[in-house]
Write a structure and sequence with these properties.
The structure is a homodimer. By secondary structure, the first copy, chain A, is of the alpha+beta class. The first copy, chain A, has a single domain, classed as Orthogonal Bundle (Arc Repressor Mutant, subunit A), CATH 1.10.10.10. Chain A is 68% helix and 13% strand. Chain A contains five helices and three strands; from the N terminus they run ααβααββα. Chain A has a three-stranded antiparallel β-sheet. Chain A is globular and about 55 Å long. The first copy, chain A, starts with a helix and ends with a helix. Chain A binds a DNA duplex through helix 3 and helix 4.
DNA sequence: AAATCACTTGGCTATTTGGCCAAATGACCG
DNA sequence: CGGTCATTTGGCCAAATAGCCAAGTGATTT
């Protein structure tokens, strides 16, 4: 594998890595409906504000969300809606895995 | 966030986590063209066979690839082609991040 | 049966990640 | 200005991840 190819896949992995956490997936899902401030997301998730803030900055660094400061609050919005297509495919993976499990047990 | 929602996002994250590594993304890309045995992938990647084997078993556990033993070799194949749609979207994220960087520098 | 591929598994270490707490920053209210 | 709310950052620790080497398994060859 040459250097250029490797760099390409590393860049891609960085984006996918940012999605690879239940809390962050939840955030993306919520942000797909409408923008939210950190405090709203913190309420929904029930973790420490600092934890939520760090998750958000990971999404931001990956280029998946953007933020806007308004007054004392920071609002995050989903920047790339195509990310939502992930969910459909992932659901397909889960379903087909579940089917295979059934086959084994049956 | 209730228990059921949490479990859903954890299941989804497990699948995406399996993709969240450059080597594994490369494997998925290769397997999308045709099936490959472990030895072929090992040659392409240039890591220890055991490392490659472990990456493949992570993809298998996530339900992304399946394997078939034929003689002394093990062939892996992509089970869910929709995974390939990830790449298009990820590329979009990278492109739009790059554009934003340009704006900043310019 | 011994040697040899093809692969998986176990063990070890170094690095990364995720969480909380505490402290720092910034806006707003009184 | 002092206090408070919203958020970010730094520090710390526990857990997960990724890599290599070595050892184990299974099929094939001699």
């Amino acid at each position: 594998m040459d250097k250029k190819t490797q760099a390409l896949f590393e860049a891609r992995a960085k984006v996918i890595k940012a999605m690879a956490h239940p809390t962050r997936l939840f955030m993306v899902d919520q942000l797909s409906r409408r923008e939210h401030c950190v405090c709203e997301l913190t309420d929904m998730i029930g973790a420490d504000t600092s934890t939520v803030s760090k998750h958000l900055s990971i999404l931001k660094n990956a280029g998946i969300v953007s933020m806007e400061k308004r007054g004392s609050q920071v609002f995050y919005q989903l920047r790339v809606p195509c990310i939502l297509n992930f969910f459909g495919c992932v659901e397909g993976v889960l379903k087909s895995s579940a089917r295979d499990q059934m086959q084994l047990v049956k």
